[in-house]
Design brief:
By secondary structure, the protein is mainly alpha-helical. The chain has a single domain, classed as Non-ribosomal Peptide Synthetase Peptidyl Carrier Protein, Chain A (Orthogonal Bundle), CATH 1.10.1200.10. It contains 3 helices and no strands. The longest helix has 18 residues. The radius of gyration is 12 Å and the shape is globular. This is Carrier domain-containing protein.
Length: 82
């Protein structure tokens, strides 16, 4: 399941970054969302979370914020019951 969530995250990040006229660098499970190589800001990250909820039907943040900083950590939130 993590692989399919990773693929979905990569697809949506690619779309978000392309809309900004940027290029998504190679993405890995350890890629940092903010403060790393990804050309996104906090608004882009919020957009990604909304799209993930729409596409997966899951909201791991329903009961409050859950800490994540990397692509892998976010993917893990969608692979365990929220």
């Amino acid at each position: 399941m993590t692989d399919s969530i990773f693929a979905l995250i990569a697809e949506e990040l690619g779309r978000i970054v392309a809309d900004k006229g940027e290029v998504l660098p190679p993405l890995g499970m350890g890629s940092l969302f903010l403060g790393g190589d990804l050309p996104i800001d906090s608004l882009d990250l919020a957009t990604l979370l909304v799209v993930l909820e729409q596409r997966t039907g899951q909201d791991p943040f329903r009961d409050g914020f859950r800490q994540f900083t990397t692509v892998g950590e976010l993917a893990a939130l969608y692979t365990v019951p929220a």
